[in-house]
């Protein structure tokens, strides 16, 4: 029986984004196919199994994600398991260690907006991405736009499949007002805020959002607070410096590393959701 492995090492380091995608992929695949042979690769620093299912093995790897020697180091670790297929949901697969490789490409920020990346990030993706595209037996994307960008890079269309992402309606749904107010009050957040959710980094255009919010406050003195939920990404320092320079500190609420289970309440409690990003993956606008 073919043995399919899923690389979930990133989940030991962060929540949201690709890590959330990987977690849901594993959970839903376990429910869809209770008889196939699967394995989940977690980093050793993650003590709790991401998934428990009778037909899923749990493999522990020492190689951290985004390490400069990741493609070789992880390949050597995989040699003891030799899966039939390895799915790398974070773009870059190891050089060897499985019979076939599938990757998911969420976006091409490092090509479209390289000035929004750190030098280390650019070296990692630029140094490995072309090889990853050649190596992958198949490539998944979650938007037609990303598929078209890959075709522009010379990837044959038949090697790309678009699989739009879903929404967990058991979590993201209208909640009772009393529950929303209770959860917001516990975080000292008033209802009716302007809400941003995402990583605090230049690609998200928080600079533009802060400037727009400053203009709003000039025209509307009683404008609701701006609530920013997320975590610090690369090059975040300028964002906090700009907020101070615009004299907005008293009107901003920063919630960092909020547990994902609490997030639906803040969507429910917001007056408006803003998405100012220059560029996004995951099928989101713009």
UniProtKB/TrEMBL annotation:
Pfam families noted in UniProt: Glyco_transf_4, Glycos_transf_1
Residues that span the membrane, as ranges: none
Limits of the Glycosyl transferase family domain: 193-284
Keyword set, alphabetical order: Transferase
UniProt keyword Kinase, yes or no: no
Sample GO molecular function, one term: glycosyltransferase activity
Domain Glycosyltransferase subfamily 4-like N-terminal intervals: 16-171
Superkingdom classification of source: Bacteria
Transferase keyword on record: yes
GO biological-process terms attached to the record: lipopolysaccharide biosynthetic process
InterPro entries found in the cross-reference section: Glyco_trans_1, Glyco_trans_4-like_N
The name this protein goes by in its record: Glycosyltransferase family 1 protein
Organism of derivation: Candidatus Thermofonsia Clade 1 bacterium
Taxonomic lineage from the root: Bacteria, Bacillati, Chloroflexota, Candidatus Thermofontia, Candidatus Thermofonsia Clade 1
